[in-house]
From TrEMBL:
<keyword id="KW-0472">Membrane</keyword>
<dbReference type="InterPro" id="IPR016187">
    <property type="entry name" value="CTDL_fold"/>
</dbReference>
<dbReference type="InterPro" id="IPR016186">
    <property type="entry name" value="C-type_lectin-like/link_sf"/>
</dbReference>
<feature type="transmembrane region" description="Helical">
    <location>
        <begin position="68"/>
        <end position="101"/>
    </location>
</feature>
<keyword id="KW-0812">Transmembrane</keyword>
<keyword id="KW-1133">Transmembrane helix</keyword>
<dbReference type="InterPro" id="IPR001304">
    <property type="entry name" value="C-type_lectin-like"/>
</dbReference>
<protein>
    <submittedName>
        <fullName>Mannose-binding protein C</fullName>
    </submittedName>
</protein>
<dbReference type="Pfam" id="PF00059">
    <property type="entry name" value="Lectin_C"/>
</dbReference>
<feature type="domain" description="C-type lectin">
    <location>
        <begin position="5"/>
        <end position="52"/>
    </location>
</feature>
């Protein structure tokens, strides 16, 4: 989220944004429907991943696989009930699949 501290001349806004309201912050929306457009938002709203570096700072951004990765975890639980020699046996199989998309 970026707090507006001066007049912005950027024009890659999503739809009718900025809306001319009291919203003084913006987010860069990277989902499929907004396709990399900016949206004005309330400054008290919460959004993931905020990074700010002061102009003239010696700090550097380092792109790592961990920072750029999306992790998807799928847990599948299968319960199998079988009767073996007149005894009910319950087998629980848990499969965990982790997919990392970089």
């Amino acid at each position: 989220m970026i707090a507006f501290t001066r007049q912005l001349t950027y024009t890659n806004w999503n739809g009718a944004n900025p809306g001319g309201t009291s919203r003084r912050c913006a987010i860069f929306s990277f989902n499929r429907s907004h396709k990399g457009k900016w949206m004005d938002v309330d400054c008290n709203s919460k959004h993931p991943m905020i990074c700010e570096i002061a102009q003239g700072s010696s700090s550097r951004l380092v792109k790592t696989a961990a920072a750029a990765a999306v992790v998807v975890v799928v847990v599948v639980v299968v319960v199998v009930k079988v009767v073996v020699e007149e005894v009910l046996v319950v087998i629980v199989i848990v499969v965990v699949v982790v997919v990392v998309i970089v």
